[in-house]
Amino acid sequence: MTPLCHVHWLYGPRVPVLLLGVSLLVTAGSSFAAQEFNASFLRAGSDKSALEAVEKGDSLLPGTYPFSLYLNGEQVDRADITFVRDGAGNVQPCLSAKRLRGYGVRVGEVQGDQAECFALASQLSDSRITYDAGTQRIDMSVAQVHLDQLPRGGVPIQLWDEGITAALLDYNVTATRNQYSDQKNQDYYYLSLNSGFNVGAWRYRNRSVVTRYTGNGTHWQTLGNSLERDLPQWRSRLQFGDTYTNSDVFDSFRFRGAQLSSDDDQLPYSMQMYAPVIRGNASSNARVEIKQNGFTIYSANVAPGPFEINDITPSSLSGDLLVRVIEADGSVHSFTQAYSAVPNMLRKGIWRYQLTGGEYRNGGYLDDYHPAFIQMTVGRGLSNDTTPFGGLLVAEHYRAANVGVGKGLGLAGAMSLDLTVASTTIANGEDNTGGSLRFLYSKSLNGWGTEFRLIGHRYSTSHFYDFADAAAERAQWRNGRYQYDYDDNHDINFVGVPDWTEQRRRSLESSQFYNKRSQLQLAVTQNLWNNDQIYANWTSQNYWHQGRSQRSWQVGYNGHASSLSYGLYFQYSSGRFTDSERIIGANLSIPIGTASRTPMYMNSYASHSNINGNAVQTGVSGSALSDNRLSYSAQAGHNAGGGNNASVNADYQGSAGDINGGYSYGNHYRQASLGAAGSVVAHSGGITLGQPLQSTTVLVDALGAEGIRIENQQGIEVGRSGYALVGGSAPYRRDHVALKSEDIGANLDVPNTTLDVVPTRGAVVRASFDTRSGRSVLVDGHLPDGSPIPLGANVFGADGRSQGIVGPNGQAFITGVSDGQALTVRWGEDARQQCDLQLSLAAQPASATAGYDRATALCQPKERVVNE
Prior knowledge:
By secondary structure, the chain is mainly beta. It is built from six helices and 53 strands. The strands form nine sheets. It has a 24-stranded antiparallel barrel. It starts with a helix and ends in a 7-residue tail after the last strand.
């Protein structure tokens, strides 16, 4: 290594390779602590402490620094870590046994498990610890035998980030103008607002809508207010205001009040969906692979003997599991584990609960009856593929209780059965008590390529009312009769209709209340050759005291031929108060042009309806510009009701928001629209504009990185303020945020272009990149007596960040330097082993070929050394 570095140095000044070599040696951390090298060929200063630091691999001095900690490649913590000198004089991170135990390391099995500075490498076999001061990262490598078995996909709670204090506003605004034959123009304006603020773990949100119609004035409607926060120690969430109950036991409904519930999203992803425990036996150090529907969903190494796997993540709720045990000698033995599940089944040991109290709010046309209620539901996964569950609901004029069980049936699939008994006092004063039985079933026939995705059936007696029916019965009671409001979707002719912005609302009255009788849901999929597929879906709802039912079903075929895809379908639907409709249709999609980053497709569609007649549509769609931030489409067609029609639409995704527009016309109308959507976040660094947030948000903080794009984010780049907003992050999961390396210019240094954040739900998490704007400079530094700065000394900026390391002859390659910047150079712990370096670059011409500047600077000691 020494001769190689010397040869490269002779060929300068193209690249200061020797400085890079010294830098790599120093920042390699304690992994090279015991290495020795011959430094006699280097002409360094008289101070030996910096050379000793280089020999030992010390890249920082004892003290406390912020570091990220990784265990076997997975981040487990971000914390202030104290570094101390060990018995050999090397600087090492001090990690207590308690801290290591929190990461799942079994330190309690060895002597010294109470130590404040646990000797990981010497106490646990096949384990080591290294650190990189440049990236502020500690890596711990620990053999599997010394680790607790943790579920895959879990992120330690200590990494969850509640985010910063911020005020947020999401908006979506559209303006539409319609021109009809022989009528005045009609304008429609719509503004949707989702605003709020975050303080600590608390999230407040307000949802409102503003609408304006021609001749109908401006209307403001508040849709809801909510205040909520995480309770991670309980794996739960606390909510106040307007929200919904879950549908695990009782049907979901909207309410205003308070709710405490378990949060499945806070579980590791491998524990969220029910899956069986896989047990087997390995004859050697083997690899276990598990496949479902032809895809590998799990792979892990196991030791000889019996093994048990309880953290697989199925790709669907049904599909038998093929388990392959691949031994060390290459031999393979396999077996099949039957697997099917229904949504309310839980893994062993997992609780799911919800406690809710407040007022019922249905948000419909007849939202004038708000009964107070309390609801409790609970479920628990047991060891034998069984999940018992149940609940209680007590409200004004209503009481209900539920008990049920979900059960895996092995080769026969999975099912759940539950019974709800309810007592209702209806509007005329009568007491009604009835029951409702619900049955769910799931089964996959892998060998035939058939999957019953979900079969559900519910039957209720004539005197049974669910809570929504009980509330609607009183809300619809009008002087001894029941009023039913509904939308007649088949009686709307937008051409020339003044109230074109609304559905046609109708009402009827009846002497009977139509409470639910039975409900059936069925979904079947048959896979064919070439990934083609036949599917069928059925949904029906019958009501007591009403002859007509509400039904819809669809059968279809999706196929592929070369690069094109096509589909055929038949759909039937009928409402409780409206005529039935039958639609037969076909669609075709063909990629056109050559393969590129901006694909274009031709899409065609044709259908026939017994109500609306024939319709055909064809057009092209695609995307353009960098990151495909501009999407567009143009279509033309014909339908029986409106004749010929055509439309063009475009949508541009910018860093500060989205803009969309469109124009369409037909025989009797013209329509133009313009819209915008985006977000505004106010934080301690100012106000930042962005695309729609979608709940959980990352605030990218990269000062000086203006114009640099964000990886895998269409249209998002760092603004002039140094900030960017990235919405739609997954809560409680590692979200990778990265700057595009190819956008980083010569005057900006970003040591780490990728950061991991773990936001909680609704958080605004700051991802702060270490950006160093300025010039790269090769400095010839010397002390007042003319001697060079000692080899291996660290160069720090005013913010305490390391900006370079001194090489031979007092030379240091420093990045992110501005004119007049004050730097501190340290080669030891004593004050006499530090000096201040003042750079003056104004008179130093930049090198056009080297890509960096050169400067000579005096380093003034902080404390003068008196020669005795």
